[in-house]
Specification:
This protein has 14 helices and four strands. With about 325 residues, the chain is mainly α. The chain has one domain. Strands 1-2-4-3 form a four-stranded mixed sheet. Helix 3 crosses helix 5, helix 6 packs across helix 8 and helix 8 packs antiparallel against helix 10.
Length: about 325
């Protein structure tokens, strides 16, 4: 779940053909061979979408981004069960933002949520343009509520797919599930060769807009299983920067990421990349495993290189030999 509901939780709590890192040989693992052939599908319940929400859902649907994500996950991971993403305004009681059921077989996507995120962006962007202009990492023609809402929705669906994958595959975690779902959303979208870091950048703008609506944090914010919303903004930006530091360096020079945090971004992205490739490795489809040998090997080498480079920087800062 991305938050506890848009009307109450969105502004309160915080609201990939895939590859894997192989450390051994590339023979299909028993887990991947024995798993079922679950498919991910997107279902638009047109008759159940309120008239005021139809235009924004049409924009998302016309982008094809949800369908591409469904195809990529189906092709890459041997899910044991089908997974259905239902876009609707007819929802179970208490569901008013994207929500993944605990068996990982259905994601509810409220159409009203997409309308609300669009409207939050539409209200936020004029002030952002006035104060800092268009970030250099986003083309001016893309710095609109319509496009950033598509990008942010792509990331949020990646987050929800993370919940589904975690539950269908019973993946072991070493921290809060919400943090892991953010990590999967980042991993899955950044590794989309067609969109790269766009979804993470869009999510950062969207969550910044949401956070601007709630400047005074409460006990509910700090006690939530979601990180404080502004911290998530920096996490998304840092991972994007780490994935492509040359192209996205203006995030640092223009003050969107503090220099001290920026030092860590290469390691953070490489660690995230390595971690998800490793944990998914037993569950990859044979075709994905065969097609991604070089990419998986590079992911491990990138992590080793980033750790070595960061260690050297810290030793220099501390006056060590």
């Amino acid at each position: 779940m991305t938050s506890r509901g848009l009307q109450t939780g969105l502004l309160t709590a915080a609201a990939f053909s895939l590859v894997s890192l192989a450390v051994c040989g590339d023979a299909p693992s028993p887990a991947a061979q024995d798993a079922g052939k679950g498919r991910v599908t997107i279902v638009y319940q047109d008759d159940a979408i309120q008239p005021e929400n139809k235009d924004v859902i049409k924009t998302i649907r016309d982008s094809g981004v949800f369908e591409r994500m469904a195809e990529r996950l189906t092709a890459a991971v041997a899910l044991p069960h089908d997974l259905e993403v239902v876009v609707t305004d007819e929802l179970p009681k208490g569901v008013d933002d994207p929500n993944t059921e605990l068996d990982g077989r259905r994601i509810f996507w409220p159409a009203a949520f997409s309308k609300d995120t669009h409207d939050v962006l539409a209200e936020f962007l004029p002030g952002a343009l006035r104060d800092k202009g268009v970030p250099k990492v986003i083309a001016q023609e893309n710095f609109t509520a319509e496009i950033l809402n598509v990008w942010g929705s792509q990331f949020i669906l990646g987050h929800e797919l993370g919940h589904a994958v975690i539950h269908q595959l019973n993946l072991p975690l070493t921290g809060l599930e919400e943090d892991s779902a953010d990590g999967f959303g980042t991993f899955f979208t950044v590794n989309d060769k067609d969109t790269g870091p766009d979804a993470a950048l869009g999510a950062a703008v969207l969550f910044d807009a949401m956070g601007s609506k709630r400047p005074n944090l409460t006990m509910e914010d700090f006690s939530s299983d979601h990180e404080v919303i502004q911290q998530r903004v920096y996490n998304f930006l840092c991972a994007a920067l780490g994935s492509d530091p040359e192209r996205l360096n203006s995030l640092v020079t223009d003050g969107y990421i503090p220099e001290l945090r920026a030092m860590m971004c290469g390691k953070e992205w490489s660690q995230l990349n390595y971690g998800w490739w490793t944990i998914l490795e037993p569950h990859l489809t044979p075709s994905t495993r065969a097609e991604t040998v070089a990419v998986r090997q590079k992911a491990r080498q990138d992590l080793e290189d980033e750790n070595a480079a960061l260690l050297a920087k810290f030793r220099k800062m501390r006056g060590q030999q």
